[in-house]
Write a structure and sequence with these properties.
With 188 residues, the protein is mainly α. The chain has seven helices and four strands, in the order H-H-H-H-E-E-H-E-H-E-H. Strands 1-2 form a two-stranded antiparallel sheet. Strands 3-4 form a two-stranded parallel sheet.
């Protein structure tokens, strides 16, 4: 849905858990700071020492399947529905569903447009939403825009999801096999 404070907010990479971004994706460099940085959620970029569980699970899974990220990116692109992070005064991460309705709908309309543009520009044949919200939002946005693409979904790897804590990788693999895309992740 949107970045977590220790993932994409630190790296700019969807599901951007720092260790995965540096060790597997081999991304280096400096990460800038927003002009209005939250005092309780400082951006330390690739020096961030806190792990982001969803990102560790997501990229760890594809690392096991692909070994080399080049193989993953030959067929896949990871797009974050809403690339912006929102925080309460206390520093709590706020997801789009937690935003006031008028603000949320206005924001997500822009996000829907960006998703449709990315899908069309990349010539995507299938969108796999990570989590029910992302899948449903993608399906609705693409249909409304008249973009003819298959939309499916896999369970979100969030530690807030009890099912994800009991074998997210197995569930993701089973679903990807069912969708017929597992061959995209092997070099053989």
């Amino acid at each position: 849905m949107n970045p977590g404070p220790f993932g994409m907010a630190q790296t700019g990479v969807p599901f951007g858990e720092v260790k995965s971004v540096v060790d597997w994706l081999k991304i280096t460099g400096q990460v800038g700071h927003p002009p209005d940085e939250h005092p309780k959620r400082r951006i330390t970029g690739l020096a961030c020492t806190q792990s982001e569980v969803s990102g560790a699970r997501f990229w760890g899974f594809f690392r096991k399947l692909c070994v080399d990220p080049t193989l993953f990116f030959q067929h896949c692109f990871v797009h974050n529905l809403c690339p912006l992070i929102f925080m309460s005064a206390s520093g709590k991460n706020l997801t789009p569903p937690e935003l006031p309705l008028a603000e949320r709908e206005s924001l997500l309309a822009f996000c829907d447009t960006a998703l449709c543009q990315a899908v069309e520009a990349l010539g995507v044949s299938m969108v796999i939403g990570v989590g029910r919200v992302a899948e449903q939002r993608a399906r609705r946005a693409l249909l409304a825009a008249g973009v003819n693409v298959r939309v499916e979904g896999i369970m979100h790897p969030s530690p807030r999801n009890p099912r994800a804590n009991k074998g997210w990788e197995d569930e993701a693999k089973t679903k990807l096999e069912k969708l017929g895309v597992m061959s995209l992740f092997s070099s053989g």
